[in-house]
Write a structure and sequence with these properties.
The complex is a heterodimer.
Chain A (H helix, E strand, L loop, with lengths): L15 E2 L5 H7 L9 H9 L8 H5 L6 H9 L3 H11 L3 H7 L6 H4 L1 H6 L5 H19 L13 E5 L3 H12 L3 E6 L7 H4 L10 H10 L4 E5 L9 H7 L2 E4 L5 E2 L12 E3 H10 L7 E2 L1 E5 L3 H13 L3 E5 L11 H10 L2 E3 L2 E8 L3 E11 L5 E11 L2 E4 L3 E2 L15 E2 L2 E2 L13 E3 L10 H20 L7
Parallel strand pairs in A: 2-3, 2-5, 3-4, 5-19, 7-15, 9-10, 9-15, 10-11
Antiparallel strand pairs in A: 1-8, 6-16, 12-13, 13-14, 17-18
Helix pairs in contact in A: 2-4, 4-5, 4-9, 5-9, 6-9, 10-17, 14-15, 15-16
Chain B lengths: L5 E3 L2 E3 L3 E3 L8 H10 L3 E7 L12 E6 L2 E8 L8 H14 L4 E6 L5 H12 L5 E5 L13 H4 L2 H14 L4 E4 L8 H9 L4 E4 L3 E3 L3 E2 L4 E2 L10 E4 L4 H13 L7 E5 L5 H9 L4 E4 L1 H6 L3 H16 L28 E4 L9 H9 L4 E6 L2 E6 L9 H5 L6 E4 L26
Parallel strand pairs in B: 3-4, 3-16, 4-7, 7-8, 8-9, 9-10, 10-15, 15-16
Antiparallel strand pairs in B: 1-2, 5-6, 6-14, 11-14, 12-13, 17-20, 18-19
Helix pairs in contact in B: 3-5, 5-6, 8-10
The chains are: A alpha/beta, B alpha/beta.
The structure holds flavin-adenine dinucleotide, flavin mononucleotide and iron/sulfur cluster.
Chain lengths: 466, 426
């Protein structure tokens, strides 16, 4: 029997270790949270759809997928047609089926929810149909969409996340040639490096990227960072149009003492490592404190627990209703066993070389709704701290040299709401780098709209240097 | 890519999905919306002589099943209640606007040659592609000697068809009523009259339900009801059989067939086509869900044809007819036995009780590891397949044919048949 040595007794040993759980349990903890519906389950679920006219679910989907249409196709046994219908509105329909917060999107609007508080499982049905199409494309080496005659036009897309991929696919369908540059070694953006592992099980992100590129006409250049390896001015010169889909590569700091101690990590970096590494090699603290109130905090905390941490606490400076994490996500974390400390603002990260505790000030709202410190403090012991207090446009503002810079408003690239064109003609932007919902599905819609904007821009005969 | 185009008795359309003569094809507004949605053709709501008929309120009786609406729909409507000239003008305009779609005009006028002659002249002037003779309407019109009153008398069917062929160059489709014992008789009569095609079925005489408070059949009109015509998914099996009989019988197999009755999906349509239909017509499903159901019909049929390598509609029209035999040609020696996939079983027990109470006591309950499961006693199973239909899990109960089968023996040759064929010992 081994003795557990607490860092209180042995301060030199912060308890951070990999392989806290047996490999089989780790695999089970990170397997598909919502396994695919069987054919019978999907038939039963599809039969529940009323095939509403002008359906509220469609209006609630940022990409306006024809939901009743694809569900009717599932009900008729036309899985290929169902998948095609979804993918023609949203080429990342497979990811969206897995990661969309459906309760605040399509399923939130379902009339079955109004009628019986039990919406049709639209996300799960979408997965059945898209999985079918992707599997068939993979098996036959074919792609369900065709390209229009070559236009001879070349477009640069910076960022291979959902926004960049959706834009590239739409442009390729229209006959244009697309070159995608991405700073990271693998494409997919946060699908590959950010979304919780159990939502994107079995390497789905990579399979989906391969499927999307299967249309042809899209060249991928990984390891190319705008600002380091590339500059906007040359891209503008070299290509007929540019789409910026760089997400939010930077992170906010806490700006409190002790932030540089060992084992104080950015939640997004922790998740990115977790998504890439073998699970049994990912080190996790025994007691983990996650700071923040958004979905990133939820994902970091839940995955920390599933890696085998003993106690994971999310500390947030306001109340539950102010958390930006959706109600479903909060419930998910709580049912996983994450502890929630509300009205707690971190003031210092304590320890020696490594973190040993986080000191918090208690907060409250004063009568004008301002957040105030109460003067009381408390300390949470921690072997590891994960910071999830928001992301920013970029680590360093990209060097744009001679080229006029797209205008930035409130930390995001400003765009025309219809075409997604920036203040610089011929340069478009979309996804998390512009203001909006910061969801995969919104990034896809941005990519589609920007592609339409670019197609309009090219048709108008303009070129950025013309 | 498969080719969904059809040439039906000389009438061309981009796909085999037509709207049946009924409220969905009642006027220009609806038909425009239908064509915009993608329907390959329409059969315009039946025209009659002026003054137009008058309809009642309400008009429909609905039959639900298992929580779903409109398994069957019953109506007490009549033919168009709009003036003839207005309909003809709209038909002409729509045909001009949508030249690639099929425009068939349904007709029902009194049983005299002059009436048919005069309406045919006027229909031809619209540029329509064909006419459909409504000999099917089971209520309201038959009392006036039209509709099924004609359709139930083969001699009248032949006579009117002959007039229409004489007085018009348009393809003539005869719409058959199912309210008759032998569908082959009116079909053969239509063929003798020179019909290019038959379409079937029209609605089945019915009472949808009884309002037990009003003590009247539904739908009620100021407390009274009448019998009507039944359609929707419930009538599909009846329609399939009638279509197949006409396609199989050597005397009528030359007729083109437009299949109608309960079609709501591409799969339903494919079944009608496999039994000999060259096009299909839809009414209730469109009335239930609107015109855009045709999208999945087109798409689903294309995908299925692609998968089965059928290049066009003609390539599988009537393909199932060769396997539609008379009962006495079935092999009585052929055996199948139910097989239950224990891993798939959800333990509902429905197969057991069905077999125990109403079939052959061949399924026994068991406990395996605290879980209920069921096993087939192979010697008791007659292969009726009731359990297979009852089981709610697809693929859990399958009917399996043992590899060793006895020699083929049909009823024609069976010793129990007093009229058996004598087998030539040589
Ligand atoms: C932890 C986490 C969990 C999430 N979970 C969900 C969820 O469950 N459901 C949901 O709908 N949304 C979720 N989101 C949000 C969602 O992932 C994003 O909204 C979406 O990925 C945005 O897509 P994008 O294409 O704009 O950006 P990203 O996916 O961020 O892709 C941007 C790409 O640009 C590249 N890039 C950045 N800067 C440069 C540069 N200078 N040069 C070259 N390339 C560059 C990056 O490497 C990256 O590949 C989550 C986000 C996070 C952080
Ligand atoms: C309300 C209603 C009105 C109909 N009117 C006509 C008609 O005027 N002429 C006709 O030939 N058939 C008429 N029909 C029959 C349909 O054309 C069709 O033959 C029948 O409904 C079966 O098809 P379904 O099961 O797809 O509804 C009518 C059906 C309904 C429901
Ligand atoms: S469908 Fe309803 S609203 Fe429309 S005419 Fe009939 S009864 Fe009136």
């Amino acid at each position: 029997m081994s003795t557990i040595i607490s860092p209180d007794i042995c301060p030199a040993m912060p308890d951070v270790a990999a392989a806290r759980l047996p490999p089989a349990l780790l695999i089970a903890n990170f397997a598909d949270v919502h396994p695919p519906l069987s054919l019978d389950q999907s038939a039963i679920e599809a039969a529940r759809c009323y095939f509403c006219h002008d359906a509220p679910c469609v209006a609630a989907c940022p990409t306006a997928i024809d939901i009743p249409g694809f569900i009717r196709a599932i009900a008729s046994g036309n899985l290929a047609g169902a998948g095609q219908r979804i993918l023609s509105a949203n080429i990342l329909g497979g990811t969206c089926a897995r990661v969309c917060p459906t309760d605040s999107l399509c399923q939130g609007a379902c009339v079955r929810r109004t009628q019986q508080n039990q919406p049709v499982a639209i996300g799960a049905l979408q997965r059945v149909a898209t999985d079918h199409v992707l599997a068939r494309a993979q098996a036959t080496g074919s792609h369900p969409f065709t390209r229009a005659a070559p236009s001879g036009r070349r477009i640069a897309v910076v960022g291979a996340g959902p926004a960049g991929l959706a834009c590239a696919h739409t442009l390729s369908r229209a006959g244009h040639e697309v070159t995608i540059f991405d700073a990271k070694p693998k494409p997919g953006g946060l699908n590959e490096y950010g979304i919780a592992a159990y939502k994107m099980a079995d390497d789905f992100a990579a399979r989906e990227v391969a499927f999307i590129l299967g249309i042809g006409g899209i060249t991928l250049h990984p390891g190319q960072t705008l600002g380091d390896d590339l500059d906007l001015a040359s891209l503008r010169d070299e290509f007929d149009a540019v789409f910026l889909a760089i997400g939010q590569a930077g992170v906010n700091a806490l700006t409190i003492p002790g932030e540089t101690r060992a084992n104080v990590l950015n939640a997004v970096d922790f998740i990115a490592d977790l998504r890439q590494a073998e699970l049994s090699r990912v080190a996790i603290g025994r007691r983990v404190v996650v700071i923040g109130g958004g979905n990133t905090a939820i994902d970091a905390a839940t995955q920390a627990l599933r890696l085998g941490a003993d106690l994971v606490t999310i500390a947030y400076r306001r109340g539950r209703t102010e958390m930006s994490a959706t109600g479903d996500e909060q419930t998910w974390a709580l049912t996983n066993g994450v502890a929630l400390r509300l009205w707690s603002a971190p003031v210092a990260i304590e320890g020696d070389e490594a973190v040993r505790a986080v000191r918090f000030a208690r907060t409250r709202l004063d009568t004008d709704g301002q957040l105030k410190l109460t003067g009381e403090h408390f300390t949470l012991e921690a072997d590891m701290v994960l910071k999830a207090v928001g992301q920013t446009l970029a680590k360093h503002p990209p060097q744009m040299d001679a080229c006029p810079l797209p205008q930035i408003v409130g930390g995001r690239i400003a765009v025309d709401p219809l075409t997604r064109e920036t203040s610089v003609p011929g340069i478009f932007a979309g996804g998390d780098c512009i203001a909006g919902a910061d969801l995969t599905v919104q990034a896809v819609e941005d990519g589609k709209r920007a592609a339409a904007g670019i197609i309009g821009f090219l048709a108008a005969g303009a070129t950025p240097h013309g | 890519m498969v080719d969904l185009r059809v040439n039906f008795a000389g009438i061309k359309a981009p796909n085999p999905f037509f709207l049946a003569s009924a409220p969905p094809t009642d006027k220009a507004y609806n038909v425009t919306r239908a064509f915009r949605a993608g329907w390959g053709g329409v059969v315009w709501k039946t025209l009659g002589e002026d003054p137009p008929v008058v309809n009642v309120s309400s008009r429909y009786g609905g039959v639900g099943f298992g929580g779903q609406r409109l398994m069957g729909l019953n109506n007490i409507e009549l033919i168009t209640d709009r003036p003839l000239e207005l309909n003809l003008q709209e038909i002409k305009q729509i045909k001009r606007d949508w030249p690639d779609r099929a425009m068939i005009v349904s007709l029902m006028v009194p049983c005299d040659e002059a009436s048919w002659y005069s309406i045919l002249r006027r229909v031809e002037e619209t540029g329509a592609d064909g006419v459909e003779l409504n000999f099917g309407c089971p209520h309201g019109m038959s009392e006036r000697g039209m509709g099924s009153a004609v359709g139930q008398v083969p001699a009248y069917v032949e006579m009117v068809t002959t007039w229409c062929k004489q007085h018009s160059r348009l393809p003539v489709i005869v719409k058959l009523t199912p309210n008759i014992t032998d569908i082959l008789l009116p079909a053969a009569a239509a063929q003798r009259g020179g019909a290019d095609a038959v379409s079937l079925i029209n609605t089945v005489q019915s009472i949808a339900s009884v309002d037990l408070d009003l003590m009247a059949p539904t739908p009620t009109v100021d407390g009274y009801g009448t019998h009507g015509g039944y359609c929707g998914p419930a009538v599909k099996p009846i329609a399939l059989r009638m279509v197949a009989d006409i396609a199989r019988d050597p005397a009528t197999s030359g007729l083109a067939i437009s299949g109608i009755g309960g079609i709501a999906s591409w799969r339903d349509a494919a079944e009608f086509i496999a039994l000999g239909a060259g096009t299909v017509q839809v009414c209730t499903a469109a009335m239930h869900y609107g015109f855009r159901i045709v999208e999945d019909m087109i798409d689903g049929l294309s995908n299925w044809m692609d998968q089965k390598s059928y290049p066009d509609i003609a390539s599988f029209t009537g393909r199932a007819i060769r396997n539609y035999v008379h009962w006495e040609d079935l092999d009585l020696a052929w055996k199948t036995i139910a097989h239950i996939d224990e891993a798939a079983c959800i333990g509902c027990g429905l197969c057991h009780i069905a077999c125990e109470d109403t079939a052959h006591q061949a399924i026994v309950p068991r406990q395996s590891g605290g879980r209920r499961s069921y096993a087939v006693i192979e010697t008791a199973c007659v292969g009726c397949n009731l359990c297979h239909h009852i089981c709610p899990v697809t693929g859990c109960i399958t009917m399996q044919a043992p590899a060793a089968q006895l020699p083929r023996q049909t009823w024609r040759d069976h010793p129990n048949n007093p009229l058996r064929r004598e087998i030539d010992p040589a």
